[in-house]
Amino acid sequence: MALLQISEPGQSPQPHQRKNAVGIDLGTTNSLVATVRSGSEVILPDEQGRDLLPSVVHYESEGVSCVGYEAAEHNSSDPLNTLSSIKRLLGRGVADIKTLGDSLPYEFTTDDGGMPKINTVHGAVSPIQVSSEILRKLAGRAELTLGGMLDGAVITVPAYFDDAQRQATKDAATLAGIKVLRLLNEPTAAAIAYGLDAEEFDDESQQRTIAVYDLGGGTFDISILRLSKGVFEVLATGGNSALGGDDFDHAIANWLRTELDMGETLNVYEQRVLLEVAKSTKEELSINNQVELDILDTRLVLTRDCMHQLIDDLIEQTLTACKRSMRDANIKADSIDEVVLVGGSTRMPRVAAKVSELFGLEPKCTIDPDLVVAMGAAKQADVLVGNNSTADMLLLDVIPLSLGIETMGGLTEKIIHRNTTIPVAKAQEFTTFKDGQTAMSIHVVQGDRELVSDCRSLARFELRGIPPMVAGSAKIQVSYQVDADGLLNVSARELSSGVESRIEVKPSYGLSDTEITQMLQDSFSHARDDMRLRALREQQVEADRMLEDLRAAIEKDGQSLLDESELQCLQVTLDELKQLRDNTDDHRQLAAQIEVVGKTSEEFAARRMDASIKQALAGLSLDDALK
């Protein structure tokens, strides 16, 4: 017999009450928000039924006047106060932005932390503030549609976003009042949206390798994923955080400028007009073979073949990144089972054709490439907020660049290598360089080169209170923790005393325009030189240690334990080592001289040890000494 629960009117329980969770695709050109309803992902439109929200914010003297379509209408008439493509600025410094050239024709200033700010009629605003306005607009759209406050959101980011860019995205969401459940890599979100992990597997032992090619308005990502039932494992990721459809627009705009003989220097109004024409032309050429243009009393014809000549170099850069990621994943193109196209720029037939040619497969694009990322994020948000407790989904993303620490000689010791699955925690032990050292400077770096000068500095902090010991005796454990969002925490602990220091790595700006891609390219092309330089630096550090130790020992005991000729011989070998250390670039030659000094000083070291033992035993009987 079933038992019935009786409740007072209006107080009956709601067994199917759901939390309001959304997925947000914060894009360079367009942004959108999605949720899960009745088990399906749906895009939440605005009051006019439009799915997309142009990532544009317009400022007036009082503040933000409008966001989205209304703001985009001011692109040509008020370009300095109409901010678009702001995603390209997230996590970057002013020096980095200069490499973007004319793609962002704004007036910049900087704050004390090095973060760029854009001068508007309202005042200087940061990329984080502008992005927060876009996110706030999307959150408002979602709350209006869902009929309540949001309980959380999954926000997507390019897989190639570095730590600073991810942190800037999270800060923008916090400023917009959004609880971030997770930052999710865009290619992984696309794979989730397609449901590639579950429906088409006969048993759990089957696996499929997927290439997700994501070309948006401002960024390009390629991710190689291994999918099995319930598990998304990212084998490798690559791309360029400053390459996208915007660059195609600029290539066409430059062609227009040349054809119209407008000169090299354009004002911001002329730039915006050309870019608007270039964008519409690009979209039309995705459908037609040629476009006739009437601009500045001049008639121009741009054919699809001509556009291909303008943009093929840019497409080739994406294909090069694809090949590199396949090498990183240790697979070949014929091992790819499926290719997924993501991002509005993949609508261009030329892009789809080039991708198909590279992988030898017809790309999968049954879901609108503009919508797929937000839909996958919504599906993940539904799981994380607790609405779908039966979902069996495990996401194994990776970090794009190695994380390491500076060691003596300006060397990089990698603690977490690139393409390591996150979340991850790794620790490594280091020691002191000098006798009595009571503090250690920790320099956190990111990159895959051997020298710190070729990597990117993330943070610095100090560990103080180390007990004074002989050099090499202290044990300093440095721990790196990367969370599911790709954000880093570093701690350093001296094991004998327990003294500890830690830092949450939160840089205010990120890598430059081409720096991420260039860092990886350099790590390959300079690998041999880097290893030679590393070997040289290691021998230089060993030479410095030997010179310092022996000179201190000579000053203390040289006169009493060595005769004049022995002392002179040892001094000569030390002088030769110092001269070689400062002048040679051959690590083998320096290692050989270190060995010579070691053999020359063996007798001196033995006498010092004997003298120490005699001093320790002075005044003791044999029985006392043996106790």
Total count of strands: 28
Radius of gyration, in angstroms, nearest whole number: 31 Å
What CATH architecture label of the largest domain applies?
2-Layer Sandwich
Helix content: 25-40%
Structural class: alpha+beta
CATH topology of the largest domain: Nucleotidyltransferase, domain 5
CATH class call of the largest domain:
Alpha Beta
Multimeric status of the protein: single chain
The number of helical runs is 16
Strand content: 25-35%
Largest sheet: 6 strands, mixed
User: How many structural domains in the coordinates?
Assistant: 3
Spell out the CATH superfamily of the largest domain. Answer: ATPase, nucleotide binding domain
Instruction: List unreliable stretches of 5+ residues.
Output: 1-15, 508-516
Distance between the termini: 84 Å
Q: Estimate the mean pLDDT confidence.
A: 82
How would the global form be characterised? elongated
Give a summary of the structure in a few sentences:
The chain has 627 residues and is an alpha+beta fold.
